[in-house]
Amino acid sequence: MNEDTRPQPTAAEDEAVIALATTMLEAARSGDADTLLSLIDQGAPVNLRDGGGNSSLMLAAYHGHATLVRELAARGGDVDLTNDRGQSPLAGVAFKGTADVARELLEAGADPDLGTPSAAETAQYFEREEITALIAQARRTEG
């Protein structure tokens, strides 16, 4: 079977996939760990991305859900997956100023120098002293 002869999804199947993606991305935004982690544990993609390239982990991080970020990373969520604008989850967190989420991302191995602007640059620009200190500590630990 090749691409031309493979059965194509029905409209109902397409709608079901869209509904699943919508549920997962909304759960990430709202911090609904029970829903999101259950779906991932059943085989849904942990690095699902929205139309702007924001992963579930990025959305959870940006909206301040530290425990969910930790659980997504533990399930293979890519802590360095940038969105379509080249922004990393850690840079979004540095913009928002949520140090507990920054700590989780750094502990999971997030690169503070990745993206445009990087998390390190963002933390300095917005004078996020606690996040800047966490980045410095992570650099000392890995070096």
Describe the protein.
With 143 residues, this protein is mainly alpha-helical. Helix content is 58%, strand content 0%. The chain has helices spanning 11-30, 33-41, 56-62, 66-74, 89-96, 99-107, 119-125, 129-142. It starts with 10 loop residues before the first helix and ends with a helix. The mean pLDDT is 95. This is Ankyrin repeat protein.
What key attributes describe this structure?
mainly alpha; elongated
Instruction: Give the end-to-end Cα distance, rounded to a whole number of Å.
Output: 51 Å
SSE string, helix = H, strand = E?
HHHHHHHH
Oligomer: single chain
Helix content: 55-70%
Number of helices: 8
β-strand number: 0
Rg calc? 17 Å
Q: What is the annotated CATH architecture? A: Alpha Horseshoe
- CATH fold category name: Serine Threonine Protein Phosphatase 5, Tetratricopeptide repeat
Output the CATH homologous superfamily: Ankyrin repeat-containing domain
In CATH, what is the class?
Mainly Alpha
Strand content: under 5%
Specify the overall morphology: elongated
Number of domains: 1
Backbone structural class: mainly alpha
Return the average pLDDT rounded to an integer.
95
Q: Biggest sheet, open or closed, and with what strands and sense?
A: none
